[in-house]
Design brief:
Two copies of one chain form a homodimer. The first copy, chain A, is α/β, with parallel strands linked by helices. Chain A has 14 helices and five strands. In chain A, helix 11 links the parallel strand 4 (229-231) and strand 5 (254-256). In chain A, helix 2 (25-37) crosses helix 13, helix 6 packs across helix 8 and helix 9 (200-207) packs antiparallel against helix 11 (234-246).
């Protein structure tokens, strides 16, 4: 981030016609965004939304309430404009593109060994990397992939320790028996992939999916391009967390868009030092929580960049 | 609300291309809104924002960090488009109007007796009532009035009991000595106005201000017109609470837009049974928290009314 822009944005914030700090989190978000854009008075004009889809071999274990063919069906729904993410991107003025990655070639069942080869991993990361529009001024990444909360839980378990139960939840809505099975599968995944716990990129390769790797690639490229990122929920955050654990500070250009109802999202965000902007019991993925949070970030910026100063408005400032 | 529209909206929600409940609070908000608009598939097209301003005799007691002339200065800032509420209304597509009520005639110091006469109260309520556009499909009310967190704290103390300290906070930012003084003033207000604790409209008359009474009038008229309301922070909620205590259920057409950083807002919302949509440490008033929450409500409605159903999209539903 640009230190001069941060200092100038902070000075501007102190002159705006409001009591100091009265816009709360909005003030902090505006200054953070100004730093990454190297502009003390920026606006969000060109947000980009990327949705990646992948299929997961582990679905054969019965970890999801939905059949694997729903992934390709939902991709068609995204392309036809019928999903929640379509509506929220349109409302936020975000340019949405959908990238289905080898849906007819699921990852391997990671309870038996690595989900992906190194070549598969690099290919998926590259798809994410290339999908970022260098002209965008904000990025959100979302996903679709039946079985991918199991993948995200296994990654979180590898990165952050604890027990499989700490990181495994109901996803799209499995019952008690489904949750018990899913927890067992997550534990087995760590046993079958001993390198995952000591190397974050190995966790992504062995336990991830193509859509998670693509999200990580896109978020990393955004960092290089100084495009601020709004993280979505549990799966997006797990993918992003591999970057943070590989390179400390790698997510400084990212904020948490929302707190998912998936219970393990809260401890994952806490481990990353991120406070979610929204908390609305959402657990859909697709980038929906992040897309909604764009509106809050836009609100922060229109206030910061559009408000009059005390001097401009002829308003008396408060007691020092 | 319209029971048929609620039933139809609930049925529609169950068919949309997402796992049941995956949009969390957005689903509940969409169904609530559909009921009040008597339309199972509504959109928010014409939100209205009303900002009322008033001056308070109690300011002579030194309860605010800002001088009383800031009220009229900020009204000029609203009219020139320079305040936070201007930026947020523009972003939300809300039609904003500002109503300054007798700024050169502050209410009486309520530590000495009633803030307003019955005629003053009725006049201010009528200004709010008349300001509502019957063609609006959503209403937010905001306020400006140096000293009005003291008024709101006194109203809350009268309506909800407890101690003066329970309801008194730093407002725009008074120091420890200021907070102690303000707490004393709130306690004195209840002693000087013995009818306030037993009659909610007496609380509004004796302890309120013209801008609080106008907000109450606008919110009541919205109820009659079946226009859903998003409440703003501490002061707006205190004004609205007088309606709820006078007529149970009078705020069923209202949701809490945000949780203010003013500490007494949380217990007041709890007493009203309202869960805030946003919690961003804001404490500016003007309607800013509510204006930001319009975007969340809009997001809920574009999902509800714009998404495809499982059948329309050819997507397989999950396990029953």
């Amino acid at each position: 981030p640009d230190a001069d822009a941060i200092a100038a944005a902070r000075a501007r914030n102190g002159q705006l016609t409001k009591p100091p700090g009265a816009l709360g989190r909005l003030e902090e978000l505006a200054i953070w965004y100004a730093g990454w854009r190297a502009d003390p008075r920026p606006r969000i004009a060109k947000p980009q939304a990327l949705v990646f889809a992948g299929n997961h071999g582990v679905v054969a274990r019965g970890v999801s309430a939905f059949p694997a063919e729903v992934t390709v069906q939902m991709v068609a729904n995204f392309e036809a404009g019928g999903a929640a993410i379509n509506q929220l991107c349109k409302a936020a003025g975000a340019d949405l593109s959908v990238h289905a990655i080898d849906l007819d070639r699921p990852t391997a069942d990671f309870t038996q060994g690595p989900a992906m080869s190194e070549a598969d991993l690099m290919e998926a990361i590259a798809i994410g990397w290339e999908a970022v529009d260098p002209g965008a001024d904000l990025l959100i990444t979302g996903e679709m992939g039946i079985g991918n909360t199991t993948s995200a839980a296994a990654i979180a378990h590898a990165l952050f320790g604890g027990t499989a139960g700490d990181w495994t939840g109901r996803g799209t809505g499995v019952d008690d028996a489904g949750l018990a099975l899913k927890t067992t599968v997550v534990a087995e995944a760590l046993v079958a992939n001993p390198t995952a716990a000591s190397d974050p990129l190995e966790a992504l390769r062995c336990l991830g999916g193509r859509e998670l790797a693509a999200m990580a690639g896109a978020i990393a490229h955004a960092r290089v391009l100084r495009i601020p990122v709004v993280l979505d929920g549990f799966i997006c955050t797990a993918a992003a967390a591999t970057l943070d654990r590989a390179v400390p500070g790698a997510l400084d250009h990212a904020v948490a868009g929302h707190l998912s109802a998936e219970h393990a999202h809260a401890p994952m965000l806490a481990a990353l030092g991120k406070t979610p902007i929204l908390s609305l019991d959402m657990r859909l993925g697709e980038g929906t929580g992040a897309a909604l949070a764009i509106q809050i970030l836009k609100g922060a910026l229109v206030c910061h960049s559009g408000m009059a100063s005390f001097a401009e408005a002829g308003v008396a400032a408060g007691q020092p």
